[in-house]
Amino acid sequence: MSVWTELTGQDAAIDVFRAAAGAAPAGDDGMTHAWLITGPPGSGRSNLALAFATALLSGDADGEPTTIAQVEAGSHPDLHVVSTQGVIISIDTLRTVVERSHYSPSVAPYRVIVIEDADRMSERSSNVLLKELEEPPPRTVWILCAPSEADLLPTIRSRVRTVRLRVPSVADVAELLVRRDGVDQALAERCAREAQSHIGMALRLATSEDARARREETLRAALGVRSTRDAVLGAARMLEIAGDDAKAITAERDAEEREHALRSLGVAPGQAVPAALRSQIKALEDDQKRRATRSLRDGIDRILVDLSSLYRDVLLLQVGAEVDLVNVELRPELDAAARAATPAQTLATLDAIAEARERIDGNVAPVLALESMLVSAVRGRAGSAR
Predict the structure, then answer these.
(1) Whether residue 160 sits in one domain with residue 18
(2) 104 lies in a domain?
(3) Mind telling me which Gene3D superfamilies this protein's record contains (predicted)?
(4) In terms of domains, do 98 and 43 share one?
């Protein structure tokens, strides 16, 4: 099986990476020491980065079975993946990674370092990486992932080769869910559509009835807001939903990590953690808290993305556009919302949602940003009624 088999909708990018992975020595066929993969959330940036890393480590453009198994298990000695646990990638993390980048490969042709969410590097962290990209160690390849080139310093962008991903089609994502994950065809198509081709979110919706129910509750709550009081209560409920979603994502993983950590430290189930080992467990718990904070912020942002799809559907109905709706299952409610406001007001609501995303990104309290957004929608409907 090729390392590219489970990727979808990115044939042009795969061709670039296959050619580079099959090139030797570095410099042939576009191979270089630093890459940047850009694309919208859910386009498969991290999956493509790991596939490329696997091909490089294999010395085979399609990947070699043993290497594929090691990468999937996270045990390859020449691969280091920086996955963001917190809101930012700290300078200490980057310094540790840079130190590793100077080690010679153990068994593979290259040492490969993948930085997921490279846009979350602070400016100080970015400057540490920049110095390394200016004077790269031999046989080390950096693969950065970010939504867009604009999310990184211009000096970093000038030292990497950028490969841009496109948004996969709903049909591509649905086909992947059916083929790879055994999801029912109709459910796969619905979840791919509601996730707006976000591969990870589509899989989550397809495999969790609770996730689908939380999404529907969010949309119905927004459509049901009629007053400022409703807006305040609706914002609080949306925050609760985002919190429930974040807990569902992190709880099982946190428990597995703790169990694995205790086992590796020689602590039997039910046994008290010795004082000498408590600092290590505390460090793990701190990492998990940072991940929970990020997961909550991501959940809130996902709610706002879903609300954008909702009012986008309303606007399409208002202007009579012959375009497929995202939230087909809510068609009666969408028709009612379309009659209750003007297209101009729906656009204003979409602007309020975009502004809420910017405010939250700027560290405004999420509940305040959500309240303001919903109040804007209420005022708009009142204005249109007048």
Answers:
(1) yes
(2) yes
(3) P-loop containing nucleotide triphosphate hydrolases
(4) yes
Does 257 lie in the same domain as 186? no
pLDDT at 386: 43
pTM of the model: 0.76
Tokens of 155: 């000096």
Q: Of 164, 193, 219, which residue sits at a domain end?
A: 164
Closest-CA residue to 124 (of 102, 147, 94, 163) = 94
Placement of tokens 């990476």 in the chain: 17
Quick count: other Cβ atoms within 10 Å of Cβ 313? 24
Torsion of CA 86, 90, 93, 95, to 10 degrees: 170
Name the phi and psi angles at 35, rounded to 5.
Answer: -130, 150
Domain count, the chain: 3
pLDDT at 89: 83
Burial class (CB in 10 A: 0-12, 13-18, 19+), 266: exposed
Tell me the C-alpha distance between 69 and 54, whole Å.
10
Q: Would you state the pLDDT for residue 327?
A: 96
Q: Confirm if 198 and 45 have CB atoms less than 8 A apart.
A: no
Residues in the chain with pLDDT values less than 70: 1, 24-30, 85-87, 252, 379-386
Range of the domain at 178: 170-207
The pLDDT score that the predictor gives to residue 87 is 66
Query: Cβ contacts of residue 206 below 8 Å, gap of 6+?
Result: 177, 181, 183, 187, 188, 191
Query: Do 93 and 63 have their domain in common?
Result: yes
State whether 273 and 196 are in the same domain. Answer: no
- Residue 85 CA to residue 250 CA, distance in Å, equals 11
Tokens of 37: 């993969």
pLDDT of residue 252: 65
C-alpha torsion sign, points 89, 93, 99, 100: negative
Residue 212 located in a structural domain: no
Question: For the sheet containing 140-146, what is the strand order?
Answer: 79-82, 111-115, 140-146, 34-38, 161-164
pLDDT in tens, 329-368: 999 999 999 998 899 999 999 999 999 999 988 888 899 9
